[in-house]
Design brief:
450 residues; six-stranded mixed beta sheet; five-stranded mixed beta sheet; 13 strands
Length: 450
Amino acid sequence: MTVPDANAAQPARPSTAYLDHLFHESEERRRSAPPADVAPSLLPAAVADAVERAAEALEPDLREVVERLHADPEPAWEEHRSAALLVEVLARHGIDAELGAHGVPTAFRAELTGAGDGPTIAICAEYDALPVIGHACGHNVIAAAGVGAFLALRGVLASAGAPAGRVVLLGTPAEEGSSGKEVLARAGAFDDVDAAIMVHPYGQDVAEQVWLGRRLLTWTFTGRPAHASAQPFMGRNALDAANLAYQGIGLLRQQLPPVDRVHATVVEGGTRPSIITERAVMRLYARSKYPDTLRDLSARLDDVARGAALMTGTEVEIVWDDGALPSLPVRTNAALTERWVAAQRRRGRDPLPPGVVSETLAASTDFGNVSFRVPGMHPLIQVSAPDVALHTAEFADAAGGAAAVPAAVDGAVGLALTALEYLTDDALRTAVHDEFVAHGGPLDVPTYFD
């Protein structure tokens, strides 16, 4: 019989002091930062106004997307109803989309072509949700903004004065806990794309924020079972190895750069206390701000696992990126992001410049893999209060709340105008690609960690 301990302490409530300081410091930086000097758009005013009106007219469709996805969340690789809804919305507006694009059942692709051959820009739309807490990362807003931007461009690209080139709308599943964009990329989804853009909901409007690279890791320690009382000396304890490895991670943290993160859990740790544990399994996330520092962190974690196995006389199997390909950090293209800022100012928003929001508040996204193949931007648009974190029940509420649909409309305007400027402004395209080359050019993502 289990007897509850009335005197047992409750889990300690973490202090919010550090977060409070971060938000205070961000606010101070925001107040003191001079307004960003953003060049005026070269788009004819009538064209920009037409795109903006087209996005506003799509508000009922975008509301449907935001609300239906929010009410029916589907996790990574299972977004069948979500993808079907987005394809259905496109069809209502006369757009044929390929469902199951690039061999991925819940991906889709649609294209708009202007006046002949020219550059191609992709708009990425995410729509997967988290288990249990649903759209706590707001991918329903991402999907609505992406679809809205694509449809808002249809009239311009079909007009007599259309620019050369193409706009691709790419439905990208499985960002949460996986790397759907990398799967699509390896299937050729970005081979004919020159630049890629998307927008993510957040607690503030931010032009550029740090997104860490992420790798998944599994350690399986194998020892020798023995009777834990009669002959413990005949065993080799895999749980001891896992314990030492976990402690090794903790000690390693003292020497890690501030931008590195390691999270670990033991998912198998034995069967009975009376048996020396033969098998223990740990799963980990490793994150870092740069591709090369993520590679360095990976090597150090390999050493931790091998050292723990050596100390306990066990064996260890190290499996990187099993079931989820690596996600690289986001390499933001400032030339593209400047055009986003200009478009958002039309909507009454003023995205914060880089460095205002602390890079401590950093997560990961598979859009990073795209941004190391082609120039990309991944700005943030506000749907919640600044102190509401992604991946919480509170953010899930915000993603279906009053600010979600206006953010989707504003996001659609921003993406559409950014894409159109990229297609029409030769000087902008040159600046975008010169910046990409100056920052190292494309990376061979599939072999980078080999």
